[in-house]
Amino acid sequence: MKARRKPKLAVWKFASCDGCQLTLLDCEDELLAVADVVEIANFPEASREVARGPYDLSLVEGSITTPHDAERIRTIRKQSKFLVSIGACATAGGIQALRNFRNVREFLSIVYARPDYIDTLPHSTPIADHVFVDFELRGCPISKVQLVELISAFLGNRKPNISSHSVCVECKLRGNTCVMIANKVPCLGPVTHAGCDALCPSYNRGCFGCFGPKETPNTSSLSHQWSNGLSASDRDIVHAYRTFNAYAEAFKKEATTHEP
Amino acid sequence: MRNNSGGVIQRADIGQLLSVLTEKGYITIGPTLRDNTIVYDEIESVQDLPIGWTDIQAPGSYRLIKRDDEALFAYNTAPQSWKRYLNPPRIRLWKAQRTEGGGFTVDPEDYAPSKYAFIGVRACELKAILIQDKVFLGGYKDPCYQSRREGAFIVAVNCTQANETCFCASMNSGPKAESDYDLALTEIIDEQRHEFVVECGSERGEEILKELQHRPVEAEDSQRVDERIQETISQMGRSMDTHRLQSLLASQPNHPRWEEVAERCLSCANCTMACPTCFCSTVEDVTDLTGDHAERWRQWDSCFTMDFTYISGGHVRSSVMSRYRQWMTHKLSTWHDQFGVSGCVGCGRCITWCPVGIDITEEVAAFQNSHSQKTTNSVEK
Ligand code: SF4
Ligand code: SF4
Ligand code: SF4
C-alpha cells in the first residue's frame, strides 16, 4: 500500500482561555495516536514549531474581538481545507460576548489606564460570523470524547457522530433521575445541545447550558415552567442564559425577553 | 388466565425470595431509593427496598414521602422502566478489524444470556414488556433483547395504591397482573398483618414458591386482594377515553391542538426515554484514529429529535408540532395498525417526567371533546 501523506493539523487561538486547546493535550491516551496519524503543523500550546500551510484541518478556538483578528481568521480560512471552530467562544462568542449587551467604550474607560491604546471591536463574535465554518464543536470547554470523534471522523472521511439533541437524552441514557422534576432544581438541559454526557445533572445540579442551544430550543416554554413551577425570577432566567453562550441566538433572545 | 397455585408469605419470610433467586444464579433487580426517587437497580436484600416510602407524582413533578407504615411496595412506577435491562440504552452490534493485505474481519457481538430476576414489575409494566416482545421478537428476533428476555424471572407486584398520573385501568393494563409473570405478589398491610399473597404464573414460579416459607391461600386472603385492587382503581388520578381514538387521531393531522401543544413541548425526548413501550433507536458507525478498527453501536433515539428523521436532503419532521403529532398518533393510533395493540399502557411516566408537565390524557381529551362538540353541532344544524 502506498504510504499516505499525513494530514496537517493546525490549532489556532483567538479570544479565549485556552481551555479547549488544552482538551487536545488532555487526550493523554489518544494523543500519541493522534500524533501518529496527523502532522501537528501548528499548535502553540504544545510546540513552538510552526509548519507552513496549507492545512488539512484547522481547529479554531476563541472569538473575534479585534480588527486584527477579523483579518487573521480570513487568512487562516484561505489556508485550511477544513475549518472547525471549537468551544463556546468560537461558536457563540464566549463569556466575553457579555460585553455585547453594553457599550464596550464604557468598559474600556473603567478597565484600562489608557483606553486609547486599545483597538477592539464593539462585539465579540463567533468564527462563523466571519468565515465559512465546516463544523462546530460546542462546549465550554469542548468534550475530549467529541474531539477525538471529530478527528477520527475527519480521518475516516465520514460524518462525526455528534448529536444536536437535548442534554435530557444523555441524562436519560445515563439513567439519571431528572433534577428538575424530583428536586425542583432549574435545569437548562431541555434546551441545551448534548455533548457533556449530562455532567451536571449526574451530580444533582441543573444544566448550565455550556454546549449552547440544541436544535429547535423552546426556551420560552422552559422559562414559563421555571417561573411557574420552580419560582425562578426574571433575574434568575437572565443569569441562566447569560453565560458562556450568551450571544447564541436562542439564549440571547430569551434573556432579553426577561430583562427588566 | 387465573392460576390456582399460590400461597401467603409473612413479611418476616419475604427476604427468602431474594436469597433463593440469588442462589439460583439470578441477578435481582428491584426498587430502591436513589437520587430522591425510587428507581430499579440491583438489590441484594429486602433492606434495599424503599421500606416505608411512597411517591407523589403529578405532571412534571415527583416527590418522596414517608408513610406511616413499613410497606415494601406501596408506591407506583419508577422514573425509568425495565426496558433499560431488556433493551439497554447503548449496545455494540459488531466490531471489525482491518487485516494484513487490505481485507477485514467482522466479529458479531456475543450476547451471553443474562439471568435477571425483576422484583416488583407492575401490571402496566408487564403489559409494556409484552408489547416490546412484539417489537423485538415478533418477526426478526433481536439477539440482545432475546438473550435478556428469555432468562428473565418476573415477580409482579399488584398495585395497592395509585398515583395522580396513573390510568392503567382505562387502558386495560392494570392494576392487577393477570398473566405472563412467574410470581405475583399483593402486599397486605394493616394492624393485624403484614404479608404477601402470592400467585404462581409459571412452573418456574411454583418451584420457587415451594422453597419459601408459606401458608395456603384462604378465601379471606383473596378477598383482601380484591378489595385492595378495587381501592387502587378508585384512586387512579387519570383516565383515557380510547373509544374510536385510533380513527379520530388518524383523521386529525391539521387539528389546531397540535400547534398548541407544540408551543409548550420542549422536544427534549424525556417522554419517549421514560416510556416503557417506546423502542426507537439510532445506529452509529465509529472508526478509531488509525482507521484499522470500526464498531457499530445502537443507542436509544426518539421521534422528538431532529436528527431522527434526517434523510438525504433534510429533516422530515423539523417542526416540533410534527414530532409531537408523530409520537401521540403512533402511540394511540398507528401502533394498533402495526402491532395490533395500543402503544400506551397508562403508566403515567410521560406525564410525570415531562419537564413542562404535558399530559397525554389531557391531549386525548381535547381531541375527544372537539370531536364530540363537532358531532353535537352537526346534529343541532
Ligand atoms: S435533569 Fe435536566 S438534563 Fe436531565 S432530564 Fe431533567 S431537565 Fe433534562
Ligand atoms: S405513553 Fe406515557 S402513559 Fe403511555 S405507556 Fe408511554 S409513558 Fe406510559
Ligand atoms: S412532551 Fe414533554 S417530555 Fe416529551 S418532548 Fe415534549 S416537553 Fe419533552
Automatic annotation (TrEMBL), chain A:
GO terms for molecular function: iron-sulfur cluster binding; oxidoreductase activity. Residues 17-153 form the NADH:ubiquinone oxidoreductase-like 20kDa subunit domain. SUPFAM superfamilies: HydA/Nqo6-like. The keyword Oxidoreductase applies. InterPro entries: Hydrogenase_assoc-protein (IPR051349), NADH_UbQ_OxRdtase-like_20kDa (IPR006137), NiFe_Hase_small_N_sf (IPR037024). Keywords: Oxidoreductase. Pfam families: Oxidored_q6 (PF01058). The keyword Oxidoreductase applies. This is NADH:ubiquinone oxidoreductase-like 20kDa subunit domain-containing protein. It comes from Pelagicoccus mobilis.
From TrEMBL, chain B:
Residues 254-286, 335-363 form the 4Fe-4S ferredoxin-type domain. The keyword Phosphoprotein does not apply. Keywords: Iron, Iron-sulfur, Metal-binding. One of its GO terms (molecular function) is metal ion binding. Pfam families: Fer4_22. The keyword Iron-sulfur applies. PANTHER family: ANAEROBIC SULFITE REDUCTASE SUBUNIT A. This is 4Fe-4S dicluster domain-containing protein.
